[in-house]
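R.M. (postdoc): so does anyone remember the format we settled on? I'll just put the structure tokens first.
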């Protein structure tokens, strides 16, 4: 096999999903590991949190991946690990 460099996180996800679809029989633990790898890569792609208002004009930031909120804007969701933009 020649050397191949994956150019983006999106490309890595596409390659892993394709591998899962093409292989008919995968050992359970291996299939689970690949699926978890996809989830981990997806969480590294930044998503903008939603700003929600509550109680007298204060606001919270809501993670669109898990739905949890934080009173302070952070680089990562403290609940699910999603990278925030």
């Amino acid at each position: 096999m020649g050397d191949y460099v994956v150019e983006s996180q999106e490309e890595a996800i596409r390659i892993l999903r394709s591998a899962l679809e093409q292989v008919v029989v995968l050992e359970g633990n291996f299939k689970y590991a690949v699926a978890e790898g996809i989830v981990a890569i997806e969480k590294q792609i930044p998503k903008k949190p939603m700003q929600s208002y509550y109680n007298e004009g204060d606001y919270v930031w809501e993670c669109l991946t898990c739905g949890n909120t934080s009173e302070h804007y952070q680089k990562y969701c403290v609940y699910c690990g999603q990278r925030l933009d």
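R.M.: ...and that's the designed sequence above, right after the tokens. Also worth knowing: The mean pLDDT is 83. The chain has two domains: 9-43, 46-85.
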